[in-house]
Amino acid sequence: MRIILLGTGAALPDPDRCHTSILVTLHNGRHFLLDCGHGATRQMMRVDVNPADVAHLLLTHLHHDHVCELPFFVISSWILSRHGPLDIRGPQGTKKLVSHLFEGGAFDADIRARSAYPLRQANIEAVRPKVTEYDAGVIFEDSDMTVTADHVDHIPPEISPCYGLRIEAEGKVVTFSGDTAPCEGIARLSHNADLLIHECTFTEAFIEHRRKSRVGTFSHTSPSELGQLAVDCKVKHLIATHIGHVDSLSPVLKRAAIKHMPVDLMGPQQIDAFVEDIRRTYHGPLQIAHDLMRIDL
Ligand SMILES: [Zn+2]
Ligand SMILES: [Zn+2]
User: Which residues contact residue 143 at a Cβ distance below 8 angstroms, ignoring those fewer than 6 apart?
Assistant: First the structure.
């Protein structure tokens, strides 16, 4: 299978990174999208994938940097002649989110205007996604792929449950952490994975600064913790993603982040800091993600 990291950033707008989104494509051409953060649709166009051809979307959690592209993705796919509804599997709350977006929701006027044309009316099902809310367990299964979700430790579950995903297809295992602090759920999902795509939002220096300034960082995984997880779970290839702007040179980000980040440390050298701290324990294949990174398994 082919995996393209469409977006590898975290919550803030970042000139060099889109929000989190991963495109998984099987040898038979079927596309699966994991999360749908800002930029996902345009990034698909850049890798020559028609958004209308992506039939399945699996959401890990409902933070905006993982779902905010949803209306653009769905409406663009409609205009690009998607046939049938998008299949969305997401945590509790996904139905409510989607129900507020399309017909009768935020983009009702847009959809009514465009569907006046017979061509758009003919595939109106494309703006009526089929949403299935899942809990831990197998959330997708057919002859090509099995996807298992497990709880991870990120948003308090009473507000919104969060999951990691383990994908089994073509004899390979790919695990995607979603956003999480170290926890048993992501360890279970990562066991013996051929590829672990795991969030690693801040380097140790940024975590320490945020601890001292009491901003709080405890819902993410540090580079040292990630290295240890990869060793413990016998991961065969590790990619650290969801990079929290620590490598950015953006003057806007530096000015805006001054209260909660050590902005003097921001810059590309932070990529080396991720590697150094992960390498304290994990010595297998390792990459720090960038947008449009491609992996063939
Ligand atoms: Zn996130
Ligand atoms: Zn999150």
Answer: none
Provide the pLDDT for residue 218.
73
Ligand nearest to the CA of 200: 1
Domain 2-296, CATH number (from 3.40.120.10, 1.50.10.20, 3.40.50.360, 3.60.15.10): 3.60.15.10
Token pair of 115 as six digits = 């569907």
Using an 8 Å Cβ cutoff, are 89 and 79 in contact?
no
Mean pLDDT for the stretch of residues 40-50: 98
Cβ distance 63 to 11 under 8 Å? yes
| Dist. CA 68 → ligand 2 center (Å) | 12
List Cα–Cα distances, 228 to 136, 147, 176, in angstroms.
24, 24, 16
Gap from CA of 117 to ligand 2 centroid (Å): 39
Mean per-residue pLDDT for 273-292? 98
Determine the 3-state secondary structure of 256 from DSSP.
helix
| 8 Å CB contact between 170 and 26 | yes
Closest ligand relative to 66 C-alpha? 1
pLDDT digits (tens, 9 = 90+) for 67-94: 999 999 999 999 999 999 999 999 999 9
Q: How far is the CA of 118 from the centre of ligand 2 (A)?
A: 40
- CA dist 9 to 38, 159, 190, 248, Å? 10, 23, 21, 10
Determine the distance separating the centroid of ligand 1 and the alpha carbon of 9, expressed in angstroms.
Answer: 8
How far apart are the CA of 28 and the centre of ligand 2, in A? 32
Each residue of 173-221: pLDDT tens digit?
Answer: 999 999 999 999 999 999 999 999 999 999 999 999 888 888 776 799 9
**Helices and strands (DSSP H and E) totals, the chain:** 11, 14
